[in-house]
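The protein record filed here.
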Amino acid sequence: DETRSKWQNLDHWDAYAKEKTGNENAVAYDAFILYINEICELLRSLGYTNLRMWNDDVYRDFDTGYTGVTQIDPTLEIQYWSKNANGGKNTVFVYLERGHKVLNFISYYTYYVVGMGSYFGVPADQVEREWDAYLFDKDEPANNPPAPCEGVLGGGYCLWSDMPATETEDEVLEHVLPFIKAIGKKLM
């Protein structure tokens, strides 16, 4: 059914969530949360402690039918890269208010994508001038926590190799080194 979101078209996940939780209000998104929590449990059983997830689809209720039957493990750290990851609905405060620690990986400043036009948002000197670990939304200052904020752990730089054959390792290093240096200075 094209009038429903992808989450509402996952009937087998919906049935699984109802069966697993014993709650008729459970929906496919609850199955996703159950899966995320199971992965967290597995990784902890193997000795991993700081578990992280990108903010994609975390606390997505606007098109899933989610009513809170299940809850994502609040100790899961969130690597926040874009408020658009959830249809533009979730600022960083959504995660902080639910007890998650967050890391700033906002794509405008902290991304390089090999291939795809070798995307990087802004020049490295602009990153150094403007970005810091508390700048999650450059357009809406109210969407940024004040510094310092106990829930913000820092940030980092992302290198996505969508089309690895388009650049050599040396070319990638030449492109990203100025950004890594700029972000490193801001995180010291």
